Amino acid sequence: MAERVVITGLGVCAPNGISLEAFGNAMANGESGIRFIPELEELRFGCQIAGRPEVTENHLNHHFTSLQRRDLNATGIIYGVIAGTDAWNNAGLPIASPELPDWDSGIVFGAGTLGVAKFREAVRLIDAQNVRRLGSTAVIQTMASGISAYLNGVLGCGNQVTTNSSACTTGTEAILMAYDRIATGNAKRMLAGSCSDSGPYVWGGFDALRILPRNYNDSPNKASRPMSASAAGFVPGSGAGALVLESLVSAEERGAKIYAEVLGGSINSGGQRGDGSMTAPNSQAVQRCIVQAVRNSGIRNSDIDTINGHLTATAKDALEIENWCEALGRSGEDFPLINSFKGQIGHCLSAAGSIECVAALLQFEKNSIFGNINCEDLHPQIVEKVDESKIPQKTVDYGPKILAKSSFGFGDVNACVIFKEY
User: Fold this and answer.
1) Are residues 310 and 256 in the same domain?
2) In this predicted model, what pLDDT tens digit does every residue of 61-88 receive, in sequence order?
3) What pLDDT is recorded for position 227?
4) What DSSP designation does 134 have?
5) Which of 102, 167, 235, 390 has the fewest beta carbons closer than 10 A?
């Protein structure tokens, strides 16, 4: 019989908050973390705004030793270590002794690009024939698994420690990978999450694709407009989210606080066939992913009362709503409450799923559904499918019972996880 899996720890490093309290308050109050970035103006970007965590010296001094900080400029690792260690501490878990790893605990922490700025520095030094000046941390800051390796150096986990990478699906996929590890009895606890680097070398490619909004440089907090008729593209973001997943038996044995239960989920791909492509989702695959997530979780379509969608503020938002309607067989007033957090934090790329899962889970604790900002002018194709009352503009008092969270990524990859009130 599969082990029941619960969430016992949360941590976040987001554009609008770098602690659970700050982040939770910002989400509840509809506060945006999207800001004008002078560097992007200097580099002549069309979109000169982004969501970037405001990491201070106090944050760095609290989470890193002076030795760890030496030459550390991989922003994804900084964000991931802050979120990951905060989640571990939030769960009330000890750090393994210097002599022996914690065999029952592991890490699945994803990334898209990692150490981009460090890699650029390395290229310049090598081209200038100064390879010896690279320093001892260049490898760990630029290797794909640098974030999970860095976190494990802090925590000392002896179970599976790995990094996954599936574009915007990465964070949600990491949670499901950790869930499977515990449900099958191969671990008692797993730190799951994802991070994304920030800066022009990460966001430049999207600006070149002209899929970012260019008319909101003077009003950044209005730029990200999920489900809106005036949506003009996603706003790039960055940061990290982290969750501690634990077997229910282990959590109860140590009297841990439980945020919610993970019922299950599904991961699939549209194969870039049909209407799917490198940048567009295959609707049939999205619907299958949702259907399988419901089936794997042992619930009915009608049990879902809340959805946190992917909903990036692009032309695909209406299609995503249509896919939810088809997969659940629900529409109009029968549709669950639905929200998107990208209006407040932007699209945090490989960190999107994990940061958004942290926010979604805080709704259980706050007995609230966070509002959708910047969609006063709902897209007409969405209103045709879903009653406007199901898309709250502001935070509403409503304790979710069963929440579905989806992520869809470049490469036509999908993930959906189901959380239940505990």
Assistant:
1) no
2) 999 988 888 888 889 999 999 999 999 9
3) 98
4) G
5) 102
What is the number of other CB atoms lying within 10 angstroms of the CB of residue 318?
Answer: 21
Q: How far is CA 171 from CA 100, 221, 352, 354, in A?
A: 29, 24, 7, 4
Token pair for 348: 């945090």
| CA dihedral of 404, 409, 415, 416, whole degrees rounded to 10 | 10
One domain for residues 18 and 131: yes
Query: What is the rounded CA–CA span in Å between residue 176 and residue 151?
Result: 19
Residues 280 and 301 in one domain: yes
Contact between 245 and 11 (Cβ < 8 Å) = no
Strand partners, 396: 369
Domain extent at residue 40: 5-260
Domain limit, last residue, from 240, 260, 280: 260
Q: What is the pLDDT of residues 358-393, one digit of tens each?
A: 999 999 999 999 999 999 999 999 999 999 999 999
Domain boundary among 203, 234, 260: 260
**8 A C-beta contact, residue 350 and residue 167:** yes
Same domain as 90, residue 62:
yes
Helix and strand totals (H; E) in the chain: 16, 14
Q: Domain count of the chain?
A: 2
Q: Nearest to residue 382, comparing CAs of 333, 289, 320?
A: 320
Phi, psi (degrees; rounded to nearest 5) at 318: -65, -35
Residue 274 sits in the same domain as residue 197: no
Over residues 276-286, the pLDDT tens digits come to 999 999 999 99
> In terms of Cα–Cα distance, which of 116, 164, 193, 224 is closest to 351?
193
Specify whether 84 is located in the same domain as 17: yes
Which residue bears the tokens 């940048």? Answer: 279
Q: Tell me, yes or no, whether 143 and 161 share the same domain.
A: yes
Give the CATH number of the domain where residue 295 resides: 3.40.47.10
Compute the distance between CA of residue 258 and CA of residue 419 in angstroms, rounded to an integer. 12
| Helix ranges, 239-370 (H) | 248-253, 283-297, 317-328, 342-345, 352-366
pLDDT at 8 over 80: yes
Give the rounded distance of the alpha carbon of 30 from its chain centre.
18
